[in-house]
Amino acid sequence: MEIPLFDLKRQYMRLRSEILEVVDRVISSGRVILGNEVNELEKEIASYVGVKHAIGVSSGTDALVISIKALGIGPGDFVITTPYTFFATASCVVRNGATPIFLDVDETYNLDLDQVELFLSKVKEGKMDETVVQNGDVERKVKTVNKLLNLYKDIKPERVKAVIPVHLFGRTMNLERLERIRERYDVKIVEDAAQSIGSEWRYDDSVVKKSGSVGDLSILSFFPTKNLGTYGDGGMILTNDEELAKICRKLRVHGAEKKYFHDIVGYNARLDEIHAGILRVKLKYLDEWIEKRYQIAQMYSKELSKNSLLESIPNVDWQDGVRYHVYHQYVVKLENAHIREKVIEEFKRKGIGFSIYYPLPLHLQKCFKNLGYEEGFLPVSEELSRTTLALPMFPELREDEVGEVVKTIEVVRWQ
Q: In the predicted model, is pLDDT for residue 144 greater than 80?
């Protein structure tokens, strides 16, 4: 039984008539760039996420580049982020002339906010505050952060401008803590919600907010494989700040508010009308698809919890209906790299789709060698890159297909 990692065709067959109708409507209108479809999608996404402004752009990558630019971050500035993520999270910083600071992730695969606060308290306040550590081994985290402080020992407090947290694979980071970090350390928060549209976090006062709603700027990706994806590239910038929204709108059209009159140098980064129209069709089904992804994740978790080859599975419950994880990917951690290779071999033999997110963490990429990171500096990210594996995950995945994936991993267990 061949099982794809992701199957766009199954979804399309259900939506085909609606998709073709909107494509015809857009082309027949004669307005294919920044027209009604983009305007309406921006309103709908802003309402869905819970923000005042949404700006449609050409990709999630461009959304990140524009966000960093809009915040005035550039040469001599530093931005904290995770090394266990897609390249664009860090490249957007470098493309604006600034420098990324990679801190390690925790067992959730997300940026370890304990380490973020250890680093910021030392740099911004002059003394590392170990009381900020909420989870795990304090000594290990302090040791990791001290290594990084040696790399950035001449850094000036005011030059650490922002943190880019990534809600990786659809798992929401602690939004309430992110807001506290912004207030305490005077840094901007740029939420990378490329993989997490619709995910949520419950605050201590029981308020529930969605990922992408608390950043000074936040971004979404509409890449075809995303939970809300188009048939090509697309992205969006989210904010509650009217002035930042105005700057981002200029930057997506060459820095011009009025055509041919350029206040700043911007980009050609517009979201096309056809993509916006397609996304408006799909947005109506997003919550249904998220529910199906959760059900599939529950099936996986129930069966895989019995397998001794797996060190961890993303078994994140929705508590009182709060969607802490929307399962853009279902990524498991195998016992070791050798076991992962054996599972991959068996998947290939059976025609089961898989992917490795991500085979080399960003701090060890050749293009960032100048930053001075060495193997062993960020041990959790490095271990995850050696041992994790993404299993097939999409709303139309059938129960028998889930069963076949689980059975195949079981075969390796008993080899």
A: yes
